[in-house]
Amino acid sequence: MAESPASRFVTFRNAFLTGLLLLAPLVVTLWALASIIDIVGGTFRPIFLFYLPEWLRDQPFLSLLWDIIATLIVVLLITTVGYVSRYVFGKYLFSIAERAVQSIPGANAVYNTVKQIMDTFSSQKRNLFTKAVLVQFPRAGLHSVGFITNKAQGEPQAKTTDEVWTVFVPTTPNPTTGFLIMLPKRDIIELDMTVGEAMKLIISGGTVVPPWPAPKAPDLPPAN
Predict the structure, then answer these.
(1) Tell me, what's the pLDDT at 120?
(2) Are the C-beta atoms of residues 166 and 148 closer than 8 Å to each other?
(3) What is the model's pLDDT at position 132?
């Protein structure tokens, strides 16, 4: 069935508005950039010409050269503003938003818990856990997943007859709190799962279990 004139008009109108919405930000950006370049070029052009020899001021290529220099100056200025807004203004807004969330009863507890978990998964904190292990805790016969944090114990090592390692046993589902235990090396079972996989196991309350045996990487064909 052929489209009616009214239907074709609606299709044309919708396509026009869609194209306008897509092009408007680009046109505004280009217009703003051209205006800034024109302002900078007009403002600093006399200073630029003042330091040039008189015989060079009337050269035809000078106008093009100054346009290129003005464009580079504007690009550097915009980039500087971007860095400042990202690292200074952005942090300021984030601190305001954080204080606002902290003032909301109930929401502050959820926010603090999520923030603590994110801090735990940060690269700096994750490097503190060298290995995922299995230990009998809080009593013999019960096993908990923990992380080796240190193998050199100083005074505690010197005053025991066994080689003891420090293990951090986090709580579930918030792994930012837990128990620090020192136990003999022979009582520690090292696991093949990664620290990240062990963290997922703890945070999920045991619902996310890493596959076992761990999948093997596919064999690569021999190089010719």
Answers:
(1) 56
(2) yes
(3) 92
Q: Determine contact, residues 182/133, Cβ cutoff 8 Å.
A: no
Q: What is the pLDDT of residue 213?
A: 78
Structure token pair of residue 12: 């044309």
- Radius of gyration (C-alpha) of the chain in whole angstroms: 32
Bridge partners for 181 per DSSP: 167
Domain ranges of the chain: 9-98, 125-203
Contact 133, 194 (CB under 8 A): no
Give the residue among 180, 198, 203 at the shortest CA–CA distance from 118: 203
Q: Low-confidence residues of the chain, pLDDT below 70?
A: 1-3, 41-63, 85-86, 88-90, 106-128, 153, 214-224
CATH of domain 125-203: 2.30.30
- Angle at CA 77, nearest 5°, toward 72 and 81? 150
Q: What is the pLDDT of residue 129?
A: 78
Strand pairing class (164-170; 131-136):
unpaired
- Spatial neighbors of 10 by CB under 8 A, at least 6 apart, are none
CA angle, corner 19, sides to 16 and 21, nearest 5?
110
- Of 112, 47, 44, whose CA–CA distance to 72 is shortest? 44
Q: Could you tell me what percent of the chain has a pLDDT over 70? A: 68
